[in-house]
């Protein structure tokens, strides 16, 4: 499995890929290899996204900004926080949809 991380060394999250690689190797007794390319070694977000859609890369760790290019529904992670507490998040998750009673005041709420 070939996976790219598009980030800089200043962001410590790129190290998560190494941990994931090591854990997968250990838990599968070496049957699954996670070929990890951090620090934009395979290109920037656009290049790696193209590789992902062509199948040259099987995974991509990147910012959420590029997510809608993978699929329009992925854009939901770019929404601002819609709830202002864990309790309200639980209610929203279990309910049929978000409503103004569970959302923080903002331009995305409706009366």
What topology, given as strand order, has the largest sheet?
A: 2-1-3
Shape: globular
Rg calculated over all Cα atoms = 18 Å
Query: Helix share of residues?
Result: 25-40%
- What is the count of structural domains? 2
Number of strands: 3
List SSEs in N-to-C order: EHEHEHH
Mean pLDDT: 78
Q: What is the CA-CA span between the terminal residues?
A: 47 Å
Report the major sheet.
Answer: 3 strands, parallel
Can you count the helices? 4
Low-confidence stretches: 102-111
Strand percent estimate? 5-15%
The computed structural class is alpha/beta
In words, what does this structure look like?
With 111 residues, the protein is α/β, with parallel strands linked by helices. It folds into 2 domains: 2-78, no CATH class; 79-111, no CATH class. 32% of the residues lie in helices and 9% in strands. It has helices at 16-27, 45-54, 67-70, 86-94, and strands spanning 2-5, 35-37, 59-61. Strands 2-1-3 form a 3-stranded parallel beta sheet, sandwiched between helices. The longest helix has 12 residues, at 16-27. The radius of gyration is 18 Å and the shape is globular. The model is unreliable at 102-111 (pLDDT under 50).
């Amino acid at each position: 499995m070939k996976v790219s991380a598009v980030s800089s060394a200043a962001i410590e999250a790129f190290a998560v890929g190494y941990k994931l690689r090591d854990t997968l190797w250990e838990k599968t007794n070496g049957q699954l290899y996670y070929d990890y390319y951090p620090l934009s070694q395979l290109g920037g977000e656009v290049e790696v996204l193209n590789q992902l859609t062509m199948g040259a890369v099987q995974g991509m760790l990147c910012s959420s900004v590029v997510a809608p290019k993978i699929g329009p529904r992925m854009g939901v992670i770019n929404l601002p926080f819609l709830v202002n507490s864990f309790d309200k998040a639980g209610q929203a998750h279990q309910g049929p949809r978000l409503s103004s009673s569970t959302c923080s005041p903002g331009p995305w709420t409706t009366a």
